Amino acid sequence: MTRVTPRRVALVVALLALVTLPVWVGNSYYVNIASQILLFAVFALALNVLVGYGGLVSLGHAGLFAIAGYAAALMLEAGYNHLVADLAGIAAAVVAAAVFAVLALRATGIGLLMITLALGQIVWGIAYRWAGLTHGDNGVNVATRPQPFGISLAGATSFYFATLVVFLAAVVAMALFVRSPFGASLRGTRDQPQRMNALGYNVWLIRFVAFLFSGFWTAAAGLLFIYYNGFISPQVASLQASAEALLMVISGGTATLLGPIAGAAIVVIMKNVVSAYVERWNMVLGIIFVLIITFMPEGLVPGSVRLAKLGWHALRKQAGRANVEEPAR
Amino acid sequence: MTAPAATNNAPPVTALGVKRLCKAFGGLKVTADVTLDVAPGERRLIIGPNGAGKTTLFNLITGEITPDSGAVILNGTDITRLPSRHRAHLGLARTYQIITLFARDTILRNVTLALLGLSHLRWDPFINLDRQHHLIDAAHAALARVGLEHIGGRPLAQTSYGERRRVEIAMALAQNPKVLLLDEPFAGLSVEERRDVQKLLFAIPRDVTIVMIEHDMDVALEFAERITLLHFGEVVVEGSRAEVVADPRTREVYLGH
Lengths: 329, 257
Description:
Largest sheet of chain B: 6 strands, mixed
Radius of gyration of chain B: 19 Å
Order of helices and strands of chain B: EEEHEEHEHHHEHEHEEHH
Strand content of chain A: under 5%
CATH class of the largest domain in chain A: Mainly Alpha
Radius of gyration of chain A: 22 Å
Strand order of the largest sheet of chain B: 6-7-8-3-9-10
CATH architecture of the largest domain in chain B: 3-Layer(aba) Sandwich
Distance between the termini of chain A: 51 Å
Order of helices and strands of chain A: HHHHHHHEHHHHEHHHH
Number of domains of chain B: 2
Strand content of chain B: 15-25%
Number of helices of chain B: 9
Shape of chain B: globular
CATH superfamily of the largest domain in chain B: P-loop containing nucleotide triphosphate hydrolases
Number of strands of chain B: 10
CATH topology of the largest domain in chain B: Rossmann fold
Oligomer: heterodimer
Structural class of chain B: alpha/beta
Largest interface: A-B, 25 and 38 residues
Number of strands of chain A: 2
Largest sheet of chain A: 2 strands, antiparallel
């Protein structure tokens, strides 16, 4: 039995809107922006596993994102096919996530933040300085996009649909994860690690597995990124890239499914659309973040829900008062 | 220190044994050569003034702190070097003096997490936890034992202090422990709530061994069969309820006159 609930209606409408987006957006420039939003949403969703559900704030995730991208790009350059290159990219990022986890999970909180920051900077340093491998600042070109089942992804629309498929897969994986026992275990380690240990959970291992899960989806986003841009350079691994991803998660709302998606949309739209009209778009982005943090410290999505509820109650109260006053006139 | 040395040739008759346990934080000895033998099914009370090392002793038993020397034995198995989480799987459960619950979740989810901790399902990333009826039913049953089944769906943030104390006990009971450590289960409760908690503790079957730390002598004395008095990390007096209460050292150390 499937019941019609507002939530399900919203889900179907959102899905329809996403699937028909190239039709109603028309312009391939905006279709490309949509692809960017979706790929960064995958990145933000991956980071949210750690930040939102694990309480583990990583400031080095752009490093993992770049490792996937570089590994695949270099494999392609060496003449391997897309499937092998992509698998290598994902494997490299997951292994790197394991290394990050082993080193960073010695600490939590600020300690973890600093260790991941340092690890991300090491990746950036290698990308920048080890020119023999990575071509340094020149970056690596990715000449072609893959052709899954013979479908060319060269056009904006076809690439958008490929990105949408990965995005939906990520959303489904996150939705399953959130309601699963493992998701509950991870949230437990975020809220009461000591208690979780006493209850029989292996807190370290739960966090480690969460790191791998996050690393996997970060890698998926990294691969989409190199195919989208046709290029990867050290800039991708920079601290700014890690901070941007973190801002997406925090501004949208941590530990929610929609938050990181909304956050990715804000950042990508600011960078691409607003920057065309406002020279100091970074300042606009900063002001938006300050406003979000001031008025919705829990993030845009949960904050909007809260404010909407408040507004709804206020409206109903006012309507009730108006009804009472009416007969007096 | 008149406790007779345990003979080692007999099968284990202690549910929980602590052998010459020592722990110092810097120069401060918080646990000094403590030996306990708690028989299966026994109700043991641990008393002592603030700072006597009672909670530290619990932390040493559960593995949250590692001892400097000595051994902890659970049903004949030496668990001294075992990580805390393994001890839970061997049947050791505890409650906390400072309430340590999952504030963002419902009461039911708190207890479900306790059950999940001992289930292999805890690693499953695909199934829906809310549909694991055997876990949910068991969580409801544990809540029924502490009289909270009617408010299982309530977020923890909306519960009273007394209810939280009972959630603590429900979580420990849900794990079906062989040895249950209760750290001040009556702390901060009203007179009525104390009676209720006391009643539920009396209802715990005898296959569970209970060691309880408690300040409130009125409620605790009724419950205890044997009492251990700690002072400055040392066992000062140990014996039956009557013996310890009658002992002049108890008055001197604990009652302060």
